[in-house]
Structures are given as C-alpha cells and as structure tokens.
Please model this.
Amino acid sequence: MSGMARKFLNHLKSKEFREYLMSTHFWGPVANWGIPLAAIADTRKDPIFISGKMTLALSIYSLMFMRFAWKVQPRNLLLFACHFTNECAQLTQGARFVNYYYIQGEKKTNEDKS
Model:
C-alpha cells in the first residue's frame, strides 16, 4: 500500500474524523443538500410553477449561509459547497422565471403549446 493511501486510511480511522462525522459541521450541510438537489430537479419543470418570491428568498438565504460557512472557524467548506450549488440553482430558476413572465411572455409560451 502506498504511503498516501495509508495516510488517508489512518485519517479515516482517527478520533478527529469520527468526531467530525458526529458534528453539526458535517450533518448540517448533509441535511441541507436536499434544497439544491430539489432546485436542480425543478429546472426540468415548466417555469409556470416557479415562485419568484421563494426563488429570491432562497437566493438571499444561500448567499448569507455561504458567507457564514466561510467566516465560521473552522471553515465549513461542505456547507459552503451546498449553498454555492443552491445559489447557482436558484439563479438559474430566477432567470427562467424572468424569461417566462417578463421577456418571453406567458401568453407567447401558452400559444406555442397550443
């Protein structure tokens, strides 16, 4: 076994890693991953179902928690990645919302479906 692999396995067996797995620094972000995964799945749905207010609220929420995850010591990069992913998904949904209701127009879209 190479030195790098042995070092990695020793890290996985360490008390510090076990404590990390039992901490809110780990489980909080894991639980939060449902939000960006749902937002990514929603990008396949018709834009008529997008709530502009909720998309804006979730964008602000993710920006605030990205800052928190970066500022907290030790930095919580798992939480940062979760909210970065959610921010990207919410911005995508926001663009779809603006396109549907303000640029393309709801009526034009409904005419295309007929």
